Amino acid sequence: MTKRTSLEEFVDRHRRLFVLTGAGCSTNSGIPDYRDAEGNWKRTPPVTYQAFMGDLATRRRYWARSMVGWRRFGQARPNGAHRALARLEAMGRSELLLTQNVDRLHQTAGSARVIDLHGRLDLVRCMGCERRMPRTELQDELVRLNPAWTDLDAADAPDGDADLESAEFQSFIVPPCRHCGGVLKPDVVFFGENVPRERVDTATHHLAEAEAMLIVGSSLMVYSGFRFVQTAARAGKPIAAVNLGRTRADGLLALKVEQSCEAALAFLLGEPAVAAAPAG
Ligand SMILES: [Zn+2]
């Protein structure tokens, strides 16, 4: 209860907030987190940019897993944390919502001042001609080309991936770009790939305009997100974080709330405080 009050006070005290969100924001929407409370990988790290671009077998494996995982990922709906942050924006209090998530659930919940730091999984980009297409369109094509795979079920995994370790990926057909024959890639920033410079610069500009920073559901283990926390700390901006477990920024925080994102932000929706959130 006192922790919730502290966060409410933090939000009250700082009129303009730079909000940075991560996977913890979407776990209650059924999209699992990559990392445990210690910030370690819960399962095998995701595919790297270099492996995806350099190796057809890796792309077969990626798209096969993605095709199976997409069915449920594509149906994920926003939860109270997304709605609370949309409400914060509607109150005129959000300078920017910078999300490391690629699920677009903030936008679905009504947030408009959003930058998708790591891109968006609902688009596919051709690495040859830069054309973009809806992921749903590619899904239809993948299903058409690989009918034998459509009956498979698998546990959900982050980024629409799915565990299919024992399956035979060699038989999986990955279509090329229909315009130029180039390699199709989800329009997200893979591990080993840089966030586009312009995206970083725009977010940095908004950070300079904000009075304080609010981190929601991120352990900040990825540098592309952590860099903004470093920038805020250097500028002397107060930083608060909501996260179940350790974050890389713990030493820089003015306030740390170890609750689920939904419970910690419930006050923004005028809902009574939720008692202790279940751990893990
Ligand atoms: Zn192309």
TrEMBL record:
Broad class of the protein's primary localization: cytoplasm
Chain residues that bind Zn(2+): C126, C129, C177, C180
Residues annotated for NAD(+) binding in this entry: Q100, N101, V102, D103, G217, S218, S219, N243, L244, G245, C261
Enzyme class: transferase
Textual note on the cofactor: Binds 1 zinc ion per subunit.
Alphabetical UniProt keywords: Cytoplasm, Metal-binding, NAD, Transferase, Zinc
Active-site residues, as the UniProt record annotates them: H118
Record's function text: NAD-dependent protein deacetylase which modulates the activities of several enzymes which are inactive in their acetylated form.
Protein name: NAD-dependent protein deacetylase
